[in-house]
Design brief:
Helix content: 40-55%
Structural class: alpha/beta
Radius of gyration: 23 Å
Shape: globular
Number of strands: 10
Strand order of the largest sheet: 3-2-4-1-5
């Protein structure tokens, strides 16, 4: 197979035409451009994102060194300023001052979409509260990439939940997992390599060995890998290859199976019903937990009420 791709002669003209059309679009001044940047592959920066970054008077970056590498690769000479979680309030004030002068400011995180499990939301709120426009420039997303590569959703049932990073301590992490994994939808979460093994062990404890998990690592990069398995298989999968513990991870906990009728409550729902009720009981009364669980599962409220009483005891 010939892997070399030779662009047609007219590709240069086509690129220029598209670039001119993008350049002719509306680029308001005194606006904050929230720009998604590549999560690994430099080629994923969009043409509109490139122009937004090049047209900005300054780029507010989570890590100026990491962002400078991207800007240099794309020939963008816009100056950078720091805007990370430790100085976000001060950065928001400085950005609003620039907007008051009629400048364009671009906001980027290290990778992916700013203000989505990354710094930036506080700046966006401050700019909006000050009355200036915020222009989102969408693009690469680890969450969307993982969904695209896993097939856990469909056009008939597109629901999913994004939980971000789990708490670092085991007890808090297990409580957190019980709440999220009780939802009637696939749940996506981020994890770092040094906590991956502990996270997989906690998922097994909370969800049981039969629940499905998709591990997506190094998305858009050379060693990208997307694997789906039962929770009981995750430790063996991780131990089979040392490289599997390396990189950046998106974990997708598949939706738990639901009981089909009253007689299936113990056999088909099993641990999942207990997990759901335990999570609900952390913040709801027995009666309210039974009511919510009945709405989610379709099971009789009186049986769920009795089960909740047992768990509460």
């Amino acid at each position: 197979m010939n892997e070399e791709v030779t662009p047609p002669a007219e590709a240069g003209d086509a690129w220029r035409r598209v670039a001119e059309r993008v350049a002719a679009q509306h680029w308001p001044a005194s606006a904050l451009y929230v720009v998604a940047t590549p999560i690994g592959n430099l080629g994923d920066l969009g043409l509109r994102a490139w122009q937004a970054l090049a047209r900005a008077d300054v780029i507010a970056a989570e890590d100026t060194r990491a962002s400078r590498t991207l800007m240099d690769a794309w020939g963008i000479a816009t100056p950078l300023m720091a805007a990370h979680r430790h100085n976000e309030a001060q950065a928001a004030q400085a950005i609003c001052a620039r907007l008051a002068q009629g400048q364009r400011v671009a906001l980027v995180s290290d990778a992916g979409a700013p203000a989505v499990s990354d710094p930036g939301a506080r700046i966006v709120r401050a700019v909006r509260d000050a009355g200036y426009p915020v222009v989102p420039v969408p693009g690469p997303s680890a969450v969307i990439a993982a969904l695209m590569g896993s097939g856990v959703t469909s056009d008939e049932n597109p629901a999913y939940a994004f939980a971000g990073f789990a708490p670092p301590k085991a007890a808090a992490r297990q409580r957190w997992l019980r709440r999220w994994c009780a939802l009637p939808a696939p749940v996506l979460m981020f994890e770092s390599p040094h906590r991956l093994s502990a996270m997989l062990a906690d998922l097994l404890e909370v969800c049981g060995p039969a629940r499905k998990l998709t591990v997506a690592r190094e998305l858009t990069k050379r060693f990208e890998q997307i694997a789906t398995m039962a929770m009981g298989e995750t430790a063996g999968w991780l131990a089979a290859d040392a490289h599997r513990a390396q990189g950046e991870f998106v974990l997708i906990v598949h939706e738990a199976g639901r009981a089909q009728d009253e007689d299936d409550e113990g056999a088909a729902a099993g641990i999942q019903i207990d997990t759901l009720l335990q999570a609900l009981l952390e913040s709801l009364s027995v009666r309210d937990a039974a009511r919510v669980a009945a709405r989610i599962t379709g099971l009789p409220r009186d049986k769920l009420y009795n089960k909740a009483l047992e768990l509460k005891a």
